[in-house]
Amino acid sequence: MKEIHGADDYGKLFAVVKDSFTLVQTRAQMLLGLATICLTITGFSGPRMAQSNAYSRFFIAFGLSFVLASVIAIVVSPLRLRWLTAWRAESLDETLLENLRRRDSKTRFYRIATLLLLIGLTGYLLSLIFYLSIVE
Known about the structure:
This protein is mostly helical. It has helices at 2-5, 10-52, 54-76, 92-135. Helix 2 packs antiparallel against helix 3 (54-76) and helix 2 (10-52) packs parallel to helix 4. The longest helix is centred in the C-terminal third of the chain and has 44 residues, at 92-135. The radius of gyration is 20 Å and the shape is rod-shaped.
């Protein structure tokens, strides 16, 4: 980062890190919105789908479990608030490195949450497929 943005311009370096945190948080909010939509739709149509057959019941429970796990992963890290100014190491370089580690950790949790949400949505879709195959 120092080679790209200038070795002595810590203001610019910390601005880049701050922008990274903002991006991860914005994307995590998007995932949370998708999970909320899935849970809301399930509240309306889920009981009817679950009553239709055992496959629908299994896949809707499977899907919702992963959607909820995704929400937990989002809340535990990417949406957890901790200010960049709340932690200071012995030097600016160490502080910058610690903030980069925190950013990378939040990014890992974001990726895990994305995967969990995709698995959950797949389960929900399979439940819908089995529901529709019985209804017709």
